[in-house]
């Protein structure tokens, strides 16, 4: 927004300092005049011709007072200018950093030295904001790059299949249609996952009271055929756990956790347990599964978009798009909750979601 030019803060502070010093000097002279000179005799001869009188004191004191007032004014202006500049120097550094951030240079940090005060506190808060903003921008750039790469893969495969069909008209048409359908389905699933992730990140949903135990039962019932197909036992335990949020997003959250637990499990004889409870004012959903042991450095990366992990990548019909736990993390964050992932010593994963509870 355009603004009319005005006095700088440094000049305003300088004038304030000089004005305060001049007023203080004037008050001091007024006190001297009122409480000292009033008791001196006022005559032209003085007391017995040897003592000073008010007339002589005024004519002697007035020029010196004028010189002192002028000195105070000049000293106030010069000293105020220097003092204001020194006091506002940290604010100048913060302003420079803000302009650099506005130009897109988010890697710059103020790192103001010195003891803690208001300017240092503002500087530290600004540095923290820049770190979070830089991290968020970098995350969005990685997400856009990965999403573009993931979307380009099925499109490139489709183009290759169509080129092959064009060069070889005698190729099996049913096989071509089946492969195109598989590739197209994967592209649609990826697009829907990206839209869901964008929706949950934006928090654009209507909140209502949701019982997570009912959501867990519905998700388990939907994925029970997949679990039975893989020879995995799927159990739902616990009691009611009510929270406020989007029933659709919370169902997708639990369904993603259960599907992830079923897919990344033992080849046969594995188990998946979904437990809901209310603990310490929070509604808790815990999904625990068996499986292969996970490296400790792999667990923190599982919630990042498209970071499937080599040890957990699937090549069957449930390969996924690498957004399952990323969507879960986004939904949990949009509902003001927390998500904890812990690798089981015997293999598998324990995922705990804590959401604000409601009566």
Given the structure, what is the number of helices?
A: 7
Q: Which percent band covers the strand fraction? A: 5-15%
Helix/strand order, N-terminal first = HHHHEHEEHEEHEE
Radius of gyration: 38 Å
Distance between the termini: 47 Å
**Can you tell me the overall shape?**
elongated
Mean pLDDT: 81
What helical percentage do the residues reach? 55-70%
Which residues sit in consecutive blocks of at least 5 with pLDDT less than 50? 309-319
Main sheet characteristics? 5 strands, mixed
> How many runs of DSSP E, i.e. beta strands?
7
Strand order of the largest sheet: 2-4-5-7-6
Question: Structural class per helix/strand content?
Answer: alpha+beta
Topology:
Blueprint: H1 9-35, H2 54-102, H3 118-167, H4 173-202, E1 208-211, H5 212-229, E2 233-238, E3 242-245, H6 247-263, E4 271-279, E5 282-289, H7 324-334, E6 338-343, E7 349-356
Parallel strand pairs: 2-4
Antiparallel strand pairs: 1-3, 4-5, 5-7, 6-7
Helix pairs in contact: 1-2, 2-3, 3-4, 4-7, 5-6, 6-7
Walkthrough of the structure:
The protein is α+β, with helices and mostly antiparallel strands and 359 residues long. The protein has helices spanning 9-35, 54-102, 118-167, 173-202, 212-229, 247-263, 324-334; strands spanning 208-211, 233-238, 242-245, 271-279, 282-289, 338-343, 349-356. The protein has seven helices and seven strands; from the N terminus they run H-H-H-H-E-H-E-E-H-E-E-H-E-E. Strand 4 and strand 5 (282-289) form a beta hairpin. Helix 2 packs parallel to helix 3, helix 3 packs antiparallel against helix 4 and helix 6 packs antiparallel against helix 7 (324-334). The strands form two sheets. Strands 2-4-5-7-6 form a five-stranded mixed β-sheet, covered by helices on one side. The model is unreliable at 309-319 (pLDDT under 50). The two termini are 47 Å apart.
